[in-house]
Design goal:
about 525 residues, alpha+beta, eleven-stranded mixed β-sheet
Length: about 525
């Protein structure tokens, strides 16, 4: 080959190599742009064997102690579910984003899961958990130097107020999108337990200084030392109220709304049911267990006759329908009066079919005519409890329930409604005591709403994770979960590239070829086999 041809050949090869390099760089840039657009952060995957090999090769990036072995599995669950991608919402309140919103939301989710009640505790109880921050996408440089100049040298990776400001700037639509999206994902993945749902609400009190809070007057019992008896005194309570629809068995909250504390719950029943049904997709609500605070005849008629949902709810003591039901207490059984007892529970009930003294039960036009002479009320079924746990109610004090279900077996109606107490005893109590749902990051309506809806979202996700994880965590609250994971004090977490591994300190000593003379917690042979260690 002539010298000139050789030079041309080398030139073509060089140009070809340069073109390959440009194409490779272009592809890498495209992938980085895609990652920034669709993932927004780097997610670390757990692979103990891969990390063990990299430790032996001197290629580990970061090592720290951890007492939170639960979280690597939990965030893997969120990743597989698609929840982390769901957090990639476009926040209206942000003109520029120094830190991807998904990191802020995930970081605040960690605050909820760790049970941190005050924003002042975040730098000490959350930002020092370096392994967890790295797990959700913070780089070593961000953790060491911070992500902005706010509080530089004092607050890393960010100032605590950055999280609070984020919640205050998010709109109701954005946080509702997160909660509804999580509910839809959980339903699609088959976590929904059944067709019975609970509709209930609970107050979230604040101070008078909280912006946007409501207020209401309540009667509180107080001991009068002079009169030597309990008296009722008027008290003003400030704050908000959260209304939820929750599936009974799975605990998934399929719809929720935060309103001012004085708002009547029944105003929001139909809109919440519409949102719940949208989140459920093809799944249906068959039975709704309703707290008596939602009592509204027009709404109940709509639920039964237009939405085709059966309901059970308790009647207020002074209602006409309750007085009418009590008049049947001593009547003998008949086609429209069913009596039943259950000795082991000390329970006695009376079912009455087709009572016509609940004049509000009907369409709006029907309700308006209830004081006319020719008015005919729509029939509704009732169940009255005359004895509870062996204690007989006196006349006029019986508990009365109305339902759209048949009352052939009135005990079934009471058994069904008793399940509603689960949301009060195991739901709201757990949310308030274990999940700190009433501890708002800022004294503003937006921050309170964002905190509440995000807490409800994490509550649903955790309930389903306990089922999905298959680790015997069913029926355990987040407080017990924390206690168990905090007890794993002999653990280390090691980051290496895109992976992390969690090892017992004895396992780590084995990996770095510095084993102790005696092993207390592990079997060295089994660990070597599991991690692929040759010696």
């Amino acid at each position: 080959m002539r010298r000139g041809e050789m030079r041309q050949e080398k030139s073509r090869a060089k140009k070809k190599e340069e073109q390959k390099k440009r194409n490779r760089e272009k592809a890498e840039k495209k992938m980085r742009d895609y990652s920034r657009e669709h993932l927004l952060f780097k997610f670390h995957f757990r692979d103990d064997q891969e990390v063990a090999q990299r430790i032996r090769q001197g290629r580990s990036d970061f090592i720290t102690g951890t007492g939170w072995g639960f979280f690597d599995k939990f965030f893997s669950f969120l990743y597989a579910l698609g929840f982390l991608a769901l957090l990639d919402i476009k926040a209206k309140g942000y003109e520029r984003m120094m830190l991807p919103l998904v990191k802020l939301l995930t970081t605040y989710s960690l605050k909820i899961l760790l049970g941190i009640s005050s924003m002042n505790q975040v730098p000490f109880l959350l930002f020092r958990e370096i392994a967890l921050l790295q797990m959700i996408g913070f780089t070593a440089q961000e953790i060491k130097e911070g992500i902005c100049n706010r509080g530089k040298g004092k607050s890393v990776p960010m100032h605590k107020n950055t999280l609070a400001d984020m919640l205050d700037r998010l709109s109701e639509e954005e946080l509702s999108y997160v909660l509804n999206g999580a509910a839809s994902l959980l339903v699609k993945k088959g976590f929904l337990g059944g067709e019975t749902f609970i509709l209930d609400a609970t107050d979230l009190p604040t101070t008078e200084k909280c912006q946007g809070r409501g207020k209401k007057k309540t009667l509180k019992e107080k001991w009068d030392r002079r009169a030597k008896k309990t008296v009722q005194v008027e008290e003003i309570v400030y704050g908000f109220k959260v209304i939820v629809i929750q599936e009974l068995r799975s605990k998934i909250i399929v719809a929720a709304q935060v309103v001012q504390i004085q708002e009547h719950e029944s105003k929001y029943t139909l809109s919440l049911l519409a949102q719940a049904q949208k989140n459920l997709g093809s799944r249906k609500i068959a039975l709704l267990l309703i707290d008596n605070a939602f009592m509204d005849g027009v709404t109940l008629w709509e639920i039964k006759h237009n939405l085709k949902i059966d309901f059970i709810t308790r009647v207020r003591t002074n209602m006409d329908v309750a007085t009418d039901a009590r008049s049947f207490r001593d009547q003998p059984p008949s086609p429209w009066v069913k009596k039943a007892e259950r000795e082991k529970d000390g329970l006695a009930v009376v079912g009455i079919a087709g009572l016509t003294t609940y004049g509000q039960y009907g369409e709006e036009e029907h309700k308006k005519k209830r004081y006319q002479k020719d008015f005919q009320a729509n029939p509704i079924n009732c169940v009255m409890v005359t004895c509870w746990k062996g204690k007989e109610y006196p006349l006029g004090k019986e508990k009365v329930f109305i339902t759209s279900l048949p009352i052939e077996d009135p005990l079934e109606i009471i058994d069904g409604y008793n399940l509603r107490s689960l949301i009060e005893n195991k739901g709201f109590r757990e949310l308030k005591q274990g999940w700190m749902i009433g501890h708002f990051p800022m004294k503003t309506e937006a921050a309170a709403r964002s905190h509440t809806l995000l807490t409800l979202t994490m509550y649903s996700l955790n309930a389903c994770f306990q089922t999905q994880g298959g680790k015997g965590l069913a029926q355990k609250g987040i407080r017990r979960l924390r206690t168990e994971d905090m007890s794993t004090i002999h653990k280390l977490i090691v980051f290496a590239g895109d992976y992390f591994g969690i090892f017992d300190v004895e396992e780590y000593a084995l990996i770095v070829r510095a084993p102790p003379q005696y092993f207390v917690r592990i079997n060295p042979q089994e660990v070597q086999r599991r991690l692929g260690l040759k010696d």
